[in-house]
Specification:
Alpha-Beta Plaits; five-stranded antiparallel sheet; ELAD_HU_SF; four-stranded antiparallel sheet; Hud_Sxl_RNA; 30% helix; alpha+beta; RBD_domain_sf; RNA binding; 11 strands; repeat
Length: 249
């Protein structure tokens, strides 16, 4: 929570993603490290939900983008006190609101046409997770989606529910993608408890997909609605709640 400020180019995209932090470093110590570069609006260290131990990953939002740029110059590749390896500091890849809004608008308009008639499981190929996205992404409980759900005889609405949160399936990642890419993409939307990139056993390259677990349903639905169709490099991501039919982790 922070004060709302009129949006301007000078404050936009001032959110940094930090990885490789010493597991012993507290949020306050991380702030002290970064505060020499400017005024910090918010900061967060991601913790392992089961153990409460730091994952060595954090986010820092500066007052101004120029301060964030200075922090990258000054700290990326440096070893803070007590660190065994250099830390990585880069801009958090937070998709712009416009992009997310355009995707959502498109999602609702296309869904209204697609689900106008009676639903037949066999003839219309659709995913339960897309209905869930429609229902909860922004227009909660959209009547269109709920009508659609009533036609899903025998299909559970658990979506990606898992014991520790909501599991999200991310497809069309590049072979070079690693866990930090997923932290960076999903972290800005809310509490991420786990990320996993599925690798080829022989080459250790990403097989094109991964999984992200988020604690909060609304945050997970918003992340899916914003990132499904998001262009990452040359690839367009497909993001949905994990269903039992998808690849096993």
């Amino acid at each position: 929570v922070s004060y709302a400020r009129p949006s301007s180019a000078s404050i936009r995209d001032a959110n940094l993603y930090v990885s490789g932090l010493p597991k012993t470093m507290s949020q306050k110590e991380m702030e002290q490290l970064f505060s020499q570069y400017g005024r910090i609006i918010t900061s967060r260290i991601l913790l392992d939900q089961a153990t409460g131990v730091s994952r060595g990953v954090g986010f820092i939002r500066f007052d101004k983008r120029i301060e964030a740029e200075e922090a990258i110059k000054g700290l990326n590749g440096q070893k803070p006190l007590g660190a065994a390896e250099p830390i990585t500091v880069k801009f958090a890849n937070n998709p712009s609101q416009k992009t997310g809004q355009a995707l959502l608008t498109h999602l609702y308009q296309s869904s209204a046409r697609r689900y106008a008639g009676p639903l037949h499981h066999q003839t219309q190929r659709f995913r339960l997770d897309n209905l869930l996205n429609m229902a909860y992404g922004v227009k909660r409980f959209s009547p269109i989606a709920i009508d659609g759900m009533s036609g899903l005889a025998g299909v559970g609405l658990s979506g990606g529910a898992a014991g520790a949160g909501w599991c999200i399936f991310v497809y069309n990642l590049s072979p070079e993608a690693d866990e930090s890419v997923l932290w960076q993409l999903f972290g800005p939307f809310g509490a991420v408890t786990n990320v996993k990139v599925i690798r080829d056993f022989t080459t250790n390259k990403c097989k094109g997909f991964g999984f992200v677990t988020m604690t909060n349903y609304d945050e997970a639905a918003m992340a899916i609605a914003s990132l499904n169709g998001y262009r990452l490099g040359e690839r367009v991501l497909q993001v949905s709640f994990k269903t039992s039919k998808q690849h096993k982790a």
